[in-house]
Amino acid sequence: MSKQSNVSRETSARRGAETFADTPIAAAAARASESLTPGGTPPLPRPAQPRIITGANQKGGVGKTTTAINLAASLAALEKKVLIVDADPQANATSGVGVDTRNIKCTIYDCLIDGKDPEEAILKCEVENLSLMPSNIDLVGAEIEMLDRPEREKILKNLLYKIRDNYDYILVDCSPSLGLLTVNALTASNSVIIPVQCEYFALEGLGKLLNTIKIIQGNLNSDLEIEGFLLTMYDNRLRLSNQVADEVNKHFQQMVFKTIIQRNVKLSEAPSFGQPAILYDADSRGTVNYLNLARELIEKVEAKVNEV
Ligand SMILES: Nc1ncnc2c1ncn2[C@@H]1O[C@H](COP(=O)(O)OP(=O)(O)O)[C@@H](O)[C@H]1O
Ligand SMILES: [Mg+2]
User: For 213-228, how does the pLDDT look when each residue is reduced to its tens digit (9 = 90+)?
Assistant: First the structure.
């Protein structure tokens, strides 16, 4: 963990001594955590590389795309072979790594709906070791078109399994919904990262997401694990940020990434230059936070491989 995130954690812990017990945030966190099996053990680790990880939260603006881009770029900088799969018709991950959505010949839509070879869609990014399966607005129609397909929840899984051996990590960026594309992403994945913005309404709806994950574990993908809750846009000067962080830690404990993503203007500026923060400003706090997250993730995943 970086010095910065240590500082944040200490501050957070200190403020945690104040009582937040009877607040709406505490109640929302308690409701959300009830959605997980009380006292239940996490499912057995699925160590096989590559690891397919979906970032999911049906709330918009919580840092899913920022995490997909910057975690992917950080893993690539740490010499892992990484693919970002943009599964959002808004295509923010695509433009965020510098690809002009108007000039793409083959997108994830063509692969999902028209059976195009995924290799045809995949583009190399400016960061070495980093590739992208791009999206564009066409994807907006995909959910309806997938509805009457056989095994409609497994279309993305079948697609990714054709190319997964070329990568160490595949990160899927979803739209803010729990629709069929997100269900496809979770069905294809080994694990899910749940970004939680350190803001007032952050915990609302978490229970619904966790229930969806449980349903997918029960019906479509028994191996799906929660890789971790990720606190994003944390500002240690704000009591609210600390309160959200404390509640998430209290309820989800070891399931919360130790690395906290702080609010950092470079992270919000970088996409308009079509660059991950590591290219836009390598020394920024955002870059350091996401590099720490990548290291923490690699340690977690490698520990699981060694367990088996
Ligand atoms: N840690 C951060 N610090 C500052 N701005 C951030 C941070 N994370 C995300 N943002 C900004 O917040 C907005 C929403 O983030 P985004 O990753 O697009 O969320 P989502 O994909 O969940 O909708 C974007 O404008 C993004 O640049
Ligand atoms: Mg997004």
Answer: 999 999 999 999 999 9
Name, in order, each residue with C-beta under 8 angstroms of 202's C-beta and a sequence gap of 6 or more.
59, 62, 196, 244
Tokens of 37: 């099996």
Domain extent, residue 188, equals: 12-303
As for how many domains the chain has, the answer is 1
Ligand nearest to the CA of 273: 1
Flag whether 1 is in a domain.
no
**Residue 140 belongs to a domain with what CATH number?**
3.40.50.300
pTM (predicted TM-score): 0.87
Ligand 1: residues whose CB is within 6 Å? 60-66, 92, 176, 232-233, 261, 263-264, 267-268, 271, 286
pLDDT tens figures, 34-90: 766 555 444 433 335 699 999 999 999 999 999 999 999 999 999 999 999 999 999
Largest CA distance in the chain: 56
